[in-house]
Amino acid sequence: MKLVIVGGGIIGTATAARLGQTDHDVTLVERDEIGTDTTAASAGMLMRAAVEPTPFDVALRNRAWAAYQRLFEESGLEAERIGTLYLAETAAYAERLERSAATLADHGVDATFRTPDELAEYGIDTSNFDDSRDPGAFAGGLHTTADRRCNPAAVASWFADCAREAGVDVRTGVEVTAIRTRNGTVRAVETDTGRIDADTVINAAGPWAPQLNNTVGVSLPLAHTVGPMAELECPAAASQRADSTQSNTNSNSNATPFTILESKRYVRPGAANGSKAPRRAVVGEFNTGYAEGSVLELHKRDLSDSFRNGAPGTASLVSGFDDATITEEWVGYRTVTPDGRPIVGETDVSGFVVACGLTGLGITLAPAVADLVADAVAGGLDSEHREQVGPDRF
C-alpha cells in the first residue's frame, strides 16, 4: 500500500519512522525543512505532569514515555530531566492539582502536591516576582520529577533519519497543493513538484491540518491558539544564583523545574534550543483553550506588547532571573480540540487519516500517536481508542 504523510514535524516524522517498519511504500512530504516550524517553536518538554488526567490520558503518555526511554538510550540525543511544577494561584486550582497528583501517582508517575511553604525548594523566588498579583498568593503546586527538556527539532530529525534508514522517501521543500479523491476514496497527492499516487494520506500538518482537511471535505473541531515565546538571559552578576538552582538536574529532583502558572504563563530553564544554559530561560504561554472557529492567519508571528513587556516579570519567578532581558522572541501555533485530546484515525473519506489537534502535547505524545496511526492503517483503532481519540467521537 502507498502511504503519504503530510507534515515533517515531530508527529509526521515519528509516524514515518513507525510506518517505515511495515511493508508499505511510505513517502513523507514537508514544505520546509524537518522540524523547523511548529515543532521548533515549542518549549521542548516531554511531560509527565497533567492537570486532572483520566486513566486513559496517563496510559497514552506512558506509552509515549516508554518509547522515548528507548530512544534516548539508543541515540546520542540529550534530554535533561528537570521536572514540571504547576503553580496554583487560587485555592480551587490547588485542589485540582492535589487531585491530579494523586491520580498520576496511582498510575506510576512520581508526582506530589507541594504546599506554599515548600515551593522555595524548587527555585521559586516569590520575593522578586514582578507581577500584578500578590507574590505570596501561590496556593500550592503539582510537582513531577521525570519530565525532560529536549531539542524538539533534533528529535524530529532523528525520527526522520530512522525513517530514511527504513526506506521511507522523505521529501523536504515540497508543498502539497491538493488531495485527489475518487468516489470518496483517496487516490493521490498533488504537490508543487508533481503527483504522488497514494492509497492513504496521513494528515500530520500541525496548524495547517484544518486547511488540508478542507481539501477533501473533512470537518473536524480544530482551533488555533497562539504560543508567544521569548528567551531571556540574566546578567552575569546573577548567574551564580541561577546556577545554584539549575545545576546537576539529572540527579537533583529539587532543581528549578519547568514552571507553569495557573494563568498559563510558564518559565522553562535553559536555552531556546533545549540545551542547558544556567543564565537563560524561556518564557511562554501554554494556551490550550478551545474556541470554536478560531482558525488564525499562520503567517502572523509578532509578539504582543503585553507579552513582551511582561516576560521579564514572569522570568523573575525563577531565582536569579529578576533582571533578565529578552535575547530572542518568536511565536508558535497550537492546534487544539474541545476535549484536549488529539484526533487520530481514518475519517469518512476512505484512506484519509488524521493525526492532528495535539493541544500542546505534540512532543510528549508523538511516539504514541505514531503507534495509533499504524493501527489505523493496519485496519483501524480498537474501540477504546476510537472512543477517546478517533475523529468520529465528535
Radius of gyration: 21 Å
**Average residue-wise pLDDT:** 91
> N- to C-terminal separation?
29 Å
The SS-based structural class is alpha+beta
Strand proportion: 25-35%
Succession of helices and strands:
EHEEHEEHEEEHEEEEEHEHEEEHEEEHH
Q: Could you state the CATH homologous superfamily of the largest domain? A: D-Amino Acid Oxidase, subunit A, domain 2
| CATH fold annotation of the largest domain | D-Amino Acid Oxidase, Chain A, domain 2
Query: Main sheet, how many strands, which sense, barrel?
Result: 8 strands, mixed
Kindly state the number of beta strands.
20
**Count of helical regions:** 9
- Domains, number: 2
CATH architectural label of the largest domain: 2-Layer Sandwich
Low-confidence stretches: 239-253
CATH class of the largest domain: Alpha Beta
